[in-house]
């Protein structure tokens, strides 16, 4: 039954392994950052996946909240009418992309959105529009047909206008973050979008994009500030553990259980765990800049292999919307060295450029 929640099946539908679907729109294939071969049809279907999600978002929100609900939530009188216009924009994007893809167009999925009132609906819409703008910005480099690049840029600009309108006119915060929009690659954008997707029709085309393991922020929104420590949650990858401690036999494992409870015994620690604990970094994607800060286990007496809660000091100079991922080194933020993500941080600022405390993510 379609309503069954099957995230595993969804992951399979979008698995990297099945690339058998051939190109229809253009034939040329380009390599994404993680080496997966994708073509323009895949990119358009990816864009269509995001547009379907947005149509569902505005349809559900506008069905759920009437003019009185908007007013009661303290939103401006004009807001609901503009959200209706946004819905029409998104529906037109869906129609245009579907027409270009013909029989290969992907169909809508089932979605679950966490809004409980009109204000939360408005705030989350700003995040969706920003992710949309960032996804189109990142995907532009992967398109090969110049006509499609212009069409995608044209959609991108509208998504960015919509984001700016929600952020400024409705939420009364900064309409933009920095002089540059932050590009997200396909896997990063899809990791964000897929958190709202419950299940997709099996007949949908196989788009070769997968998702990262989850990264969540556990610091309360009002205490997540530049220059302060942030606590995030993710599991270090098992594969990393296995490859660094390759061919650890059961006798090695046995000795490991002896020495873990005596952390001071460093001479035996190398026969138990790999001698070097892994070092992870929080990569903060902000405009065209990438900031890296080291992560340490939040509980300093825990091994980095077994830690779920991590802490890092956020750089002082972050502003606006920032995307965070966890990487294995501090020089690049590619899919190949990303182990968890994507989390969204927001540091809204007023017209004097001063950070303001209330965040649109604070729902
Ligand atoms: C759909 O894809 C198939 C193969 O992937 C291709 O042969 C066909 O032309 C495509 N159809 C359209 C309408 O693009
Ligand atoms: C709007 O919806 C609320 C429930 O959310 C309902 O109580 C109210 O009567 C509705 N108002 C109008 C004008 O339909
Ligand atoms: C954040 O909010 C919580 C309650 O919502 C409050 O207890 C805490 O003091 C706030 N922190 C700051 C830094 O304002
Ligand atoms: C931030 O975390 C570091 C270690 O990760 C710790 O040494 C420092 O005291 C923390 N700072 C604050 C303000 O909590
Ligand atoms: C323990 O693991 C190391 C590799 O990390 C291996 O070289 C060694 O032979 C193993 N010891 C035993 C007793 O299997
Ligand atoms: C581990 O502990 C067992 C008994 O608890 C002991 O026989 C064994 O020698 C210990 N191994 C190491 C490497 O300390
Ligand atoms: C463990 O590491 C220390 C240096 O950190 C080294 O002197 C020692 O030989 C190592 N022991 C084993 C069994 O590899
Ligand atoms: C930190 O980790 C150690 C070892 O796992 C555990 O004994 C201790 O209770 C933890 N401390 C906190 C505050 O969770
Ligand atoms: C910006 O700064 C001016 C002059 O310092 C001040 O009057 C104004 O209230 C500030 N605006 C905001 C939104 O803080
Ligand atoms: C990394 C490594 O050394 N892997 C080896 C583990 O052991 C198997 C056989 O036991 C080898 O085939 C791997 O090369």
Give an overview of the whole structure.
With 363 residues, this protein is of the alpha+beta class. The protein folds into two domains: 9-211, Ferritin (Up-down Bundle); 212-246 and 275-363, Immunoglobulin-like (Sandwich), CATH 2.60.40. The chain contains ten helices and eleven strands. It has helices at 7-13, 40-64, 67-72, 79-101, 118-139, 146-170, 186-193, 238-244, 250-259, 266-269; strands at 29-31, 37-39, 110-111, 197-199, 216-217, 229-233, 280-286, 289-297, 309-313, 320-327, 338-347. A seven-stranded antiparallel sheet has the order 5-6-9-8-7-10-11, covered by helices on one side. A two-stranded antiparallel sheet has the order 1-2. Helix 4 packs antiparallel against helix 6, helix 5 runs antiparallel to helix 6 (146-170) and helix 5 packs antiparallel against helix 7. It starts with 6 loop residues before the first helix and ends in a 16-residue tail after the last strand. The model is unreliable at 1-24 and 244-271 (pLDDT under 50). The site of one 2-acetamido-2-deoxy-beta-D-glucopyranose (NAG) has 3 residues, from loops. Residues 21-22, 24-25, 102-104 line the site of one 2-acetamido-2-deoxy-beta-D-glucopyranose.
């Amino acid at each position: 039954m379609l309503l069954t929640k099957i995230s595993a099946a969804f992951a399979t539908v979008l698995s990297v392994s099945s690339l058998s679907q051939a190109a229809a729109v253009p034939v040329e294939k380009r390599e994404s950052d993680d080496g997966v071969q994708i073509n323009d049809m895949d990119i358009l279907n990816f864009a269509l996946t995001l547009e379907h999600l947005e149509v569902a978002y505005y349809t559900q929100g506008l069905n759920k909240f009437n003019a009185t609900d908007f007013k009661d939530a303290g939103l401006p009188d004009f807001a609901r009418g503009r959200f209706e216009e946004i819905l029409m924009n998104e529906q037109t994007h869906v129609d245009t992309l579907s027409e270009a893809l013909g029989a290969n167009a992907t169909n809508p999925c089932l979605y679950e959105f966490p809004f409980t009132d009109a204000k939360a609906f408005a705030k989350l819409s700003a995040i969706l529009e920003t992710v949309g703008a960032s996804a189109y910005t990142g995907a532009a480099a992967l398109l090969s047909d110049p006509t499609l690049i212009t069409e995608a840029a044209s959609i991108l600009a509208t998504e960015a206008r919509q984001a700016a309108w929600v952020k400024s006119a409705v939420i009364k915060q900064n309409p933009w973050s920095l002089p540059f929009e932050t590009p997200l690659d396909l896997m990063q954008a899809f990791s964000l979008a897929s958190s709202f997707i419950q299940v997709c029709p099996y007949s949908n085309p196989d788009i070769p994009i997968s998702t990262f393991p989850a990264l969540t922020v556990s610091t309360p929104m009002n205490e997540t500030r530049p220059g302060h420590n942030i606590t995030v949650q993710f599991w270090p990858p098992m594969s990393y553990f296995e490859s660094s401690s390759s061919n650890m036999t059961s006798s090695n494992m046995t000795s490991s259980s002896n020495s873990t409870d005596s952390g001071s015994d460093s001479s035996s620690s190398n026969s138990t765990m790999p001698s070097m604990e892994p070092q992870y970094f929080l990569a903060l994607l902000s405009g065209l800049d990438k900031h890296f800060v080291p992560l340490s286990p939040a509980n300093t007496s825990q091994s980095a292999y077994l830690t779920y809660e991590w802490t890092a000091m956020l750089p002082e100079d972050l502003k606006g919307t920032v995307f965070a991922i966890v990487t294995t080194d501090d020089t690049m933020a590619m899919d190949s060295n990303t182990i968890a993500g994507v989390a969204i941080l927001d540091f809204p600022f007023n017209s004097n450029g001063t950070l303001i405390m209330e965040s649109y993510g604070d729902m």
